[in-house]
Amino acid sequence: MKNLILPLLTLLLLIGCSKDEVTTQQSAPNSVQTERLQTIGKPTAVDINKAMAEFQQIVMAERARLAKTNRAKIACMNNIQVPTDFATIQEAVDNACDGAVIVVKPGTYTELVVVDKPGIKFKANGDVTLTGGFVLNEGADDITIQQFTIVVGAGNIQAINATNVNGGKIFQNTISDPAHKNSTAVRYINGSNVTVHGNNISGTGWGVFFGSTAVNGSSHDNTISNNHITGLTVGSIIGLQGNCDNNFINENTLVNNQTRSNAGVLFYSSQGLGGYCDNNVVKNNISSNGYLGAWFFNGGTNNKIGPNNTFNNNRTYGVYIDGSATGNTIFDNTAQGNVFCDIVNQATDLLSNTFKNNTATCTQGL
Predict the structure, then answer these.
(1) What DSSP string runs through 71-93?
(2) 208 CB contacts (<8 Å, ≥6 apart)?
(3) Rounded CA Rg of the chain
(4) What pLDDT digit, counting tens, does each position of 264-274 carry?
């Protein structure tokens, strides 16, 4: 801008000098002077106006350029604090760069946060309650949600709902639905490589759900561990649906869930659901005092159910296996006190699965 001002001042100074020269020379005019008067007299004012107009255009263009540059600098932020930088979590997301860290300070936030950017890390710093939840749309890969207290909001039935995303970590959150709306705490559809770890879940219909509603959808390589899920009145607890392979379900406590249907641990797969559940490990879990301890519907192949699962005192069965489940091993589990029976094998081929070293009073099809 300084570079523009100096030429303009020089121009005005020269114009001023021309006027003085004209005034002085008028006392003794001659033909040359008359010609100069005709040349520099009247047009001088026109030149000033034109110069000022051009200068204003240059100033406006410069201001526009600076404004654009400033907007580019603040178009996204890599480190954001809520509510210091933005009043809401959603505003923080809208202004975040890919891979940004969003730290939320103590308080209660009522919003349904929609994310469509990858790599964002949400971390609650202190006692943070989010009434509503998170929606992770396609493109929101590798999202981390940590240490929030999430209460399922009145207008939605998922605390964390993700579709067509890969990667990510959901850990150390407390998730609840006091209204018992048959909601889901953590729901991934067509996702893979997600870790769900160390969460405390209560009052939701489905605690953790990995599934597929489309052919070739998958939920692979998830770790579902150390979840404590209690007090349900409807739905299931930990469910994997569709093409779900190589998941690790370990040390979850699922008790006193008087569900109306489904199971504490549910593998629900078939070709029509996008594929089968294969090579999963379910160990060291407690699924008791609910509707059904564990149900493997067309449960795929090479799943290991054991050791040290406890499926006691459920309203129907402890463990129920049916359909085309083959090559699965159910071993070193305890299933007792279930109303209908403790362990039931209703697979299409009764000899295709292995049952060994289980503690049960009632068994069928073994």
Answers:
(1) HHHTS-EEEEEETTT-SSHHHHH
(2) 185, 186, 196, 201, 224, 227, 237, 238, 239
(3) 35
(4) 999 988 887 87
User: Beta-carbon neighbour count of residue 359 at 10 Å?
Assistant: 13
CB 306 within 8 A of CB 333: yes
Q: What are the percentages of helix, strand and coil residues in the chain, rounded to 5?
A: 20, 40, 40
Which amino acid, one-letter code, is at 235?
A: G
To the question of pTM greater than 0.85 for the whole model, the response is no
How many other C-beta atoms lie within 10 A of the C-beta of residue 83?
14
Instruction: Determine whether domain 157-364 maps to CATH 3.30.470.30.
Output: no
350 vs 366: CA distance, rounded Å: 7
**Spacing of C-alpha 12 from chain mean position:** 61
Q: How many residues are there in the chain? A: 366
The letter for the amino acid at 75 is: A
Of 240, 246, 248, nearest in space to 284 by CA = 248
